[in-house]
């Protein structure tokens, strides 16, 4: 046996080796859960925003995005998130196409990579055993698995948040080349802010932790804080773009803080709550059993989450020091230059919106214009903060002199709780809470829960073992409840496979123009089928060339009285039906 392998075998007990193998298997299972069937499950509406998917302009909502200009202006007018993810996917789909596997594979890779980054973060925080347990919890978390299978930005935002936090600890601990790490940190923060609006609370938490930690030391403003000021100046561009998008129609958001707090503590929405989050596949006996057990499972996860957080909070041993307060970083001249660059970027954004967004940009562009003062304001504030840092830190020191703040564990606590607190406070004014948005903060909460579980298992082995068994069962149920389908109430793929073989070359297909119907256009191509909007039904039926017409009715739609009266010269021929989807075929009556 080679020497290295001999030393490894001697240093590990069989039980520990078995645990490592088990965790490795969980990691593989997490990867499998994210890859499972992603090329077969029907496309969902959020995925129709992916660039280079061809759709008829008259029927699609959102509109197709075949050029970079369409990607940017389409995001301005019909989204609430920045265009970073779509720009990435524009290049990806140019190379790999828009097949279901191709558009979802980046999310899968980023979801798997997030598990590895969480384990690395736990090691940097000095919580090695908890790191592996947290990796297993994330690997089997149904909400994270679900949004790692969908071509949407949440998996990317979670990955970037973890990467930024790893870089923050490396900078704070003085590991590696500071300039390179500082530049990477700024780039990752900007990428995160340019990807998802829920990234802002995470970045602000980074800043709170860094400035509080810096205030403990009687030293000049450290490099980490200087780098964050630079990132905030450049990132203010995305605040201006978010202000512009604030008038767009958004998903169904919630202001129910207590509900989301309860489900967040329960291993970050381990089980779906709302119908829009729960999108099951075909009914089965197992599905019925899971439905019956769901209320009890929700209560158990809440109680377990609260109990493990209490255990984690009672740990008194300090983790390794996380702060060295090294000097250096961007200068005031760099901040002012960044402010000038950001002013130009915001003004360019406004000019592009005024020029290309049709029929005209929303009134919120004036709010973006007003926020052009943000970059210089932040830069000047940074200059003042640097000049008077000794006095500012002296004022902050009484609030910063906490023993827990001196350890790496403190940043995990803040990231697990503070961003949710920011969103909860904002939700009291305007609905903003949604389960998938919390995916960005899930890893830090899971690391804390894992810390509590490890401590409990080390002192109460039977109790800890029982909790592990219960958690494995709960996470298996989470996967079964979240991942059977991705498309919602209507399986557009299944419906299309039933409908397309019945179509004849000259058939006309009548659809409603609605965001909920748009996924059908992924399967019914405008260059292969004659597609017409419902509003033009009467005109279409008067056309002598129309001999057969298919009326597509999705969800709870039914024929209106005006549609029935327009069909007087047509008779029913056949019906194609799947769950919540029908296509009614009518043929022109013969005059003989």
Summarize the structure in words.
Helices cover 59% and strands 5% of the residues. The chain is mainly alpha-helical. The chain has 2 domains: 22-276 and 324-482, no CATH class; 492-588, D-Maltodextrin-Binding Protein, domain 2 (3-Layer(aba) Sandwich), CATH 3.40.190. A 5-stranded mixed sheet has the order 2-1-3-5-4. β4 (570-578) and β5 form a beta hairpin. The radius of gyration is 27 Å and the shape is globular. The N and C termini lie far apart (91 Å).
Q: What would the keywords be for this entry?
A:
disordered N terminus; 2 domains; D-Maltodextrin-Binding Protein, domain 2; 592 residues; 23 helices; five-stranded mixed beta sheet; 5 strands; mainly alpha
Q: How many strands?
A: 5
Q: Give the overall shape, derived from the CA principal axes.
A: globular
> Roughly how many Å apart are the termini?
91 Å
- Helix share bin: 55-70%
Poorly predicted tracts of residues: 1-11, 275-284
Overall mean pLDDT stands at: 86
Trace the largest sheet across and list its strands: 2-1-3-5-4
By secondary-structure content and strand pairing, the structural class works out as mainly alpha
Number of helices, where a helix is a run of at least 4 consecutive DSSP H or I residues: 23
Radius of gyration: 27 Å
